[in-house]
Amino acid sequence: MNGPVLPARLVSENPSVAVDQSTHSEALPTIPDDAPYCFRGRNILMLQGPVGPFFNRLSKDLQWAGANVHKINFNGGDWFYYPLNATSFTDKIENFPPFLNRVCDEKRIDTIMLFGDCRKMHGIASEIAAERNVEVYVFEEGYIRPDYITMECHGVNGRSTMPRAGIFYLNAPAPEPAETSSVGQTIWYATGWAFTYYFWAIILWPFFPRYRHHRPLSWFEGLAWVKGTARKYWYRWKNKPDVDRLTAKDHPPFFLVPLQVHNDAQIGVHSEFDTIEQFIRHTVNSFATHAPKDALLVLKHHPMDRPYTDYTRLVRKLRDETQLGERLIYVHDPHLPTLINKAEGLVTINSTTGMSAIHHGKPTLALGDAIYRIEGLTASATLDEFWNKATEYPVHQDLYRNFRHQLIYRTQLNGNFYRRIKIPGTLAGIDWTRGKLAEDKAE
Prior knowledge:
This protein has about 450 residues and is of the alpha/beta class. The protein folds into two domains: about 210 residues, Rossmann fold, CATH 3.40.50; about 160 residues, Glycogen Phosphorylase B (Rossmann fold, 3-Layer(aba) Sandwich). The chain is built from 17 helices and twelve strands.
């Protein structure tokens, strides 16, 4: 198995090609320059948001801007953070389409906002929205970390309508990003909101008995996070010799593989892998067969998956099966930017860590449908080839700069779902300021 390889999008500087790209400009996602006031007079329906009060706060900002906002709650956690001006859906998911159509008719909905477009009810909502000519804005964690969130029209990640041809970015005006405010540490805020969300989802389960969450809803969630905290400090101690070796001045050559969370919908929907375990096996077997004999392979665990998974046994088994032994390393908590800087290259499915690697100028191979999977940013090679040819795929710096600027201008907002930036006049703590296109600055 040589691994799923998507068709390459050629990078060209031929201006004639740019004309063809412009015919698709109407489909480009864009956050309006006058947001949130562009929503004045709109009838907005919010579906499931990130855990915590973000959607409630955002709704108040939108109402102050002149919008009418309604919400559908799917479980007790949704209800706790958004109890007013909301409708509860308590039926089977099969009955959600007529329910949603009825709400859209009654409230004259022309805009839908949701968090994550791979959840089942959100997929249904996107289909109905397309039939009704209703605009959909999808929120997601930022493509650019750590001080941005994503707000994208149409869809995110593999469903994004951002162009996948480098020629667009080489020829389109590159907007300068507006200055950003630092969000700071968010982990404890996110943990607190999540604990409260799951608490009320469990307590109020009798009122939403047919709801099925994308993660387990049980009292064991809290215990899992306790276990995850213990693992954090255990692996920090256990991995120290390996981390010191990898970050030393005379470190051996190694390739970095950042793992995604085990239930990341982006994997099942936007890649040919069904599980993280399948991805690990595929990558390790390829490395064992084709990589230089002096190179190491470093698997890096996802911090948000620490409470739920531990691949130590699988890694130990693969060390024996592939005879890689100590050349296969599994770590949890190293400083990721340092590790990226030291690596020969990075292999991922479609993690946003790929964006970090590109930012640091590291050869990157994306095996799934990632928004940054563009020739000139990522390698157009098979996995088997990448181990020996990574250096043949340097990052095109002009392409990356323009791509990053366009991505921020069209899809990113300065802020965070869990910790507000202190901005006068906004409850959500979001800075809506857009950057300026080069042609606008010239004026």
